[in-house]
Amino acid sequence: MNNNSAFISNPLLDFSGLPAFDRISTEHITPAIDTLLADARQLIEQLDTIQQAPTWQNLVLPLTEVNEKLSRAWGVVGHLNAVMNNPTLRETYNANLPKITEYFSEIAQHPGLFKAFKQMRNSTTFATLSVARKKVIENELRDFHLGGAELTGEEQTRFRELQSELAQLSSRFEENLLDATNAFALYVEEKEQLAGLPEDLLFAAQEAAKKDDRQGWKFTLHAPSWIPFMQYVRNRGLREQMYRAYVTRASEFGAPEFDNTALMEQIVVLRQELAGLLGYTHYADVSLVSKMAETPQQIENFLRELAQRARPFAEQDYAELRQFAHEKLDIPELNAWDIAFASEQLRESRYRFSEQEVRQYFPESQVLAGLFNLVNKLYGIQVRPSSTAVWHTDVRFYEIVDASNRLLGQFYLDMYAREHKRGGAWMDDVVTRRNKDGHIQIPVAYLTCNFSAPSGSKEALFTHDEVITLFHEFGHGLHHLLTQVDELAVSGIHGVEWDAVELPSQFMENFCWEWDVLTQMTRHIDTGAILPRHLFDSMVAAKNFQSGLFTLRQVEFALFDLLLHTGFRQAGESIQQLLGQVRQQIAVIVPPEYNRFAQSFSHIFAGGYAAGYYSYKWAEVLSADVYSLFEEQGIISSDVGQHFWQEILAVGGTRPARESFIAFRQREPRIDALLRHHGMTDGTAGRTAT
What we know:
By secondary structure, the protein is of the alpha+beta class. Among the domains are: 4-150, Neurolysin, domain 3; 184-248, no CATH class. It contains 27 helices and 9 strands. The chain has helices at 4-9, 29-47, 56-83, 87-109, 111-122, 131-146, 153-183, 199-211, 223-232, 236-247, 261-277, 283-288, 296-328, 339-351, 355-359, 364-379, 464-481, 503-509, 515-521, 533-541, 547-564, 575-586, 602-605, 615-633, 638-649, 657-665, 672-677, and strands spanning 186-188, 217-219, 382-385, 396-401, 407-416, 426-431, 434-436, 439-441, 444-451. It has a 5-stranded mixed sheet, with helices on both faces. Strands 1-2 form a two-stranded antiparallel ribbon. It has a two-stranded antiparallel sheet with strand order 7-8. Strand 7 and strand 8 form a beta hairpin. Helix 2 runs parallel beside helix 4 and helix 18 packs across helix 24. The N and C termini lie far apart (62 Å). Mean pLDDT is 94; it is low at 1-6 and 683-690.
């Protein structure tokens, strides 16, 4: 089925080990993808001959094998496009993206494969299959339905065209956002204009300017630069300039070639057409087929109830901020570009600490040691450094072993922001666990963040928010790496409902607020002292600072996403107008008219969260309730940790997430823990420090 010499010479075709990042180059991509696509199509032709007696061995296994190779190779290409983007790689990626989309569309609509899977489901041998294998077959039939397998003729052809167009539009959306972000830089030549900005951040900005052969200080729209600028710089004019640049990225207010406005409209229209072809009223209905939530109305009710519960706290948050800004900062009218600055000043005033002060206690090496120590206590596993080829000198590689030194998984860790790296933080799979002829394939993951790189001679220092982000992504990683499932399609995060997949990641965030955990992961960069108890107590007291505002902001995004994909807009109404309506209903702080948040909302226009952004709050209910058992029985309890591993992490997508939750918690989920953790219960400011 393949040319052996091609497999030897092309590192993307070598699946004997980890990706050979030291040998992979752009010219390998197209030959590798073409070879793997040809192999896959040849296999499918052969599978057509076994329709009368399809079995796991003669249908599912060979199809899994050929698709896994294609997905692994394309996954490496997609990852490099996200973390080491350049014009040549981008062009090659976009040239091959339609081929990948077309192939998986063909599979999803293949009548022979569809018939074979239906035969397996209806056969007498189905009852003899393992739980995992039954779930794989049921998921395949669901995906055939969602992939248009039941369509015929022109409708099926149009469906494939829509999938290809949507994939390309989403890719362009992400590229435009990255390019628009990279296109802006603010150079400041007078230091007094930057009053308020901490010295280490000034140093980093000065080094950035030097790299451009410029005097003074350089600031960009990448998070490690933009966020502290908005928090600390006292100059309102400069804050307004940075704010406007950030919230108008990839919009009509910038370079026309980076404008995402038309792309967004196209994406929404094509998604609606796709839903119609499948027989659904709206795209949200399509999205929910593979989620825990059952109807858009159920989600809307959930979001509006959460907004109603959060609103009094948000209004109080905003009133306090306005009063403080007026009385203490001489800001009579609080504008959007003042919010982050005034909030940081209020937090420092009220709780007597700053993020910058806390940051000195979170050097990278100590944070990682504390994180790895925590999972050792919870699950009895060890995380230790290892080595392999990587795509950038910043990247580390680790392995996870159990108490008997058995290898469980491996992961790459890429923590720092770079100019040609996609923003945000994410986990993705490199290799997924499966049982191949009695041999367990070890799972491997990418963990990617965008934190500030080391400044000068010091190691990287993280804000507490960045520590929380690291724990979040590591939770995703553990979900993928600690699975005990042998079938690839439901192993790790595969097959898990999208609105439950955030449970393990959000669960991990809770430990960032525990004294016994932080004593193991803090060390002052200069003195070596652990985080003082009084500072920790102040952090805990401030934990729910503006939690009402934050909750409403998340509800605003989620409701906007849901309504956008349920046909809520009137004829001729723009996406921006719909967002404005949602803000009027939900938000306490309404941004300026020129704010174009939607044009940078990658989660729903370029990621997998379309009609699913609510998943963050939905899963947060689950994760808070799960964590409440640790609160009841011991925060760092190995017994509860092992129980969590076995009932949540280990089972992957072999059963509905609701069943996994009930198996762990012995009851249905409740919203109480979430509200308590956010301090949004009557008469309480949230959990106090232990």
